[in-house]
Fold:
Amino acid sequence: MLGRKHQDNEEWPLYGYAPGGYMNECITCEGAFVGDKRAQNCPLCALQAQRRAFDDLRTAAVNLRSAQQAYLADRGNETLGAAVGAAAAKLDEALE
Structure:
């Protein structure tokens, strides 16, 4: 997710959180936090969302590798096509 750079050169917003000086309510856990006036998630929920997205990407990569191995084993285009489609859908979903 691209956004403006903060003083420590990190990209913001990060999964709904950006640093700032406003009191907000997290849309995920409903807890109070201080952040940018447009921030939707507290830092903890934002990090958890990032971890879930990376886990989804890791799973998609493992599934793609398995499909590649299956394709090489039996040269079945249908097996590879279905697995690649599923992995690509997971990747698109994780990157949203």
Remarks:
- The beta strands are 22-25, 32-35.
- Residues 43-95 form one domain.
- Helices lie at 43-74, 77-95.
- The chain has a mean pLDDT of 81.
